[in-house]
Amino acid sequence: MPTYDFVCNACRKRFDVFMTYSEYGVKAVHCAHCGSGDVRRRMTKVRIAKSAESRMDGLENGLSSLEGLEDDPRALGKMMRKMGSEMGEDLPAEFDEVVDRLEAGQSPEEIESALPDLGEGSTDE
To answer: What is the pTM of this model?
Structure first.
């Protein structure tokens, strides 16, 4: 059953409603927070599920352009961000911090000296 996103015009809060396709546009929708019928449909982003094979193809394409990245931290950060999103998994906050620093122009060596504890506890010993 599809989920439809709404915003209440009275209390301004967002809420979801589960309805069948035949109910949509026919069934009255009321705010889940305040009960008001003054609601409007909220358009959301479309998500496309990728297969593991499709994600790996995306990663492989990203790896094909590694040459010269050691001299360009911004390009390395951009490539890492793309690869992180292709993985389709939640990555640790440290990943985002490193990528942000690369995209800001810091070298991997500068990042490593600024974050000496990076990666500790990530191995199973």
So the answer is: 0.43
